[in-house]
């Protein structure tokens, strides 16, 4: 060991440091820690396309259960044209039940629709108006 004298105290020189080992957390050459694989929070795209002209200043909404839908408050569909409305999700779910509403108030006529994750559906709803 090489040392330098400082008064009466002896301090080790940098060359006397212990070499880093594979188990040393400060080692640059040690093993790389394992990381957990990221959890997928997306699934296949599920799409609903509605063909219905609701008229000026009206809109279509979805309500349901599953697919992160609710029967309490509707989700506004995206208007792509005078009679073209669209909803899409990539959030995973098993299946969902839904209905289309005009202005989030009036339900379409008929039974609820059932949709599974990754499915695509296109239809024209009927309203009593």
Task: Describe the protein in words.
With 129 residues, this protein is mainly β. The protein has a domain at 46-123: Immunoglobulins (Immunoglobulin-like, Sandwich). Helix content is 0%, strand content 39%. The strands form three sheets. Strands 4, 5, 8, 9 and 10 form a five-stranded antiparallel β-sheet that branches. Strands 6-7-3-11 form a four-stranded mixed β-sheet, with no helix packed on it. The chain is globular and about 35 Å long.
Annotation keywords:
single chain; 129 residues; mainly beta; Immunoglobulin-like; five-stranded antiparallel sheet; four-stranded mixed sheet; 0% helix; globular; disordered N terminus
Layout of secondary structure:
Elements lengths: L2 E4 L2 E4 L33 E6 L8 E6 L9 E2 L1 E4 L2 E6 L5 E8 L3 E2 L5 E4 L3 E4 L6
Parallel strand pairs: 3-11
Antiparallel strand pairs: 1-2, 3-7, 4-5, 4-8, 6-7, 8-9, 8-10
Give a brief description:
The chain has 129 residues and is mainly beta. The protein is built from no helices and 11 strands.
What is the rounded distance between the termini? 95 Å
Which homologous superfamily in CATH is the superfamily of the domain at 46-123?
Immunoglobulins
Helix content: under 10%
> Whole-number radius of gyration?
32 Å
Series of secondary-structure elements, N-terminal to C-terminal = EEEEEEEEEEE
CATH architecture of the domain at 46-123: Sandwich
Uncertain parts: 3-7, 30-38
The DSSP helix count reads 0
Quaternary? single chain
Q: Which shape, going by the Cα principal axes?
A: globular
User: Sheet bearing the most strands, described?
Assistant: 5 strands, antiparallel
Q: What's the level 1 CATH class of the domain at 46-123?
A: Mainly Beta
CATH topology of the domain at 46-123: Immunoglobulin-like
Mean pLDDT, all residues = 82
Q: Compute the number of strand runs.
A: 11
Share in β-strands:
35-45%
Structural class: mainly beta
